[in-house]
Amino acid sequence: MIFNGKAIKYGDNVDTDVIIPARYLNTSDKKELASHCMEDIDKDFVKKVEVGDVMVAGYNFGCGSSREHAPLAIKESGISLVVARSFARIFYRNSINIGLAIVESDEAVDGIADGDKVEANLTEGIIYNRTTGKSFAVKPFPEFIQKIIEGGGLIESIKSGLIK
Q1: Model-level pTM?
Q2: Dist. CA 36–CA 23, nearest whole Å
Q3: E strand or H helix at 18, and its extent?
């Protein structure tokens, strides 16, 4: 699993209410959710994000409520991977369930600046900062997690027979 994009970086304790504000939770339209992603912390996010970009954040990313809308809004906005120091556990599992790749790495967070070009190979377990030339080892995704992400999420992977 290889991901390429520019880094969009945030700090610690980015909660689900900031990722997708509660006032937009009355819709299940993925594109509508994505159009409001991060707007309370970064009004320009939807203007600057491009398909494949990598979100980088600090500690406790995705804390707050357990809403599945938060990782869904991030994924639908075009973000292909989230790298953080740590994730709220329910956010971590919700992300995998909807097919959003996420990985924890203090070193990568320290070594990637906003706007840097990032490449990640999560089969091999390495993140490259193509802007600085630095690389960071991470735990590779197990094969079953790779299948879930490649299949577009847990439900889609089951429906398609990719996983049983």
Answers
A1: 0.94
A2: 10
A3: helix 16-19
- Show the tokens assigned to 113: 């600046």
Distances (CA, A) of 30 to 9, 85, 113, 150, 156: 22, 27, 28, 18, 15
CA angle 92, 138, 161 (to 5 degrees): 55
CA distance 8 to 54: 6
107: which DSSP letter?
Answer: H
Longest dimension (CA), the chain: 44
Can you list the residues of the chain whose pLDDT is less than 70? none
Predicted confidence (pLDDT) per residue in 124-141, tens digit? 999 999 999 999 999 998
CATH topology of domain 2-159: Aconitase; domain 4 (3.20.19)
The dihedral built from the CA positions of residue 100, 78, 48 and 6, taken in this order, carries a sign that is positive
Distance (Å, whole) CA 114 – CA 55: 9
| Length of the chain counted residue by residue | 164
CA distance 129 to 139: 17
The full set of domain ranges for the chain reads 2-159
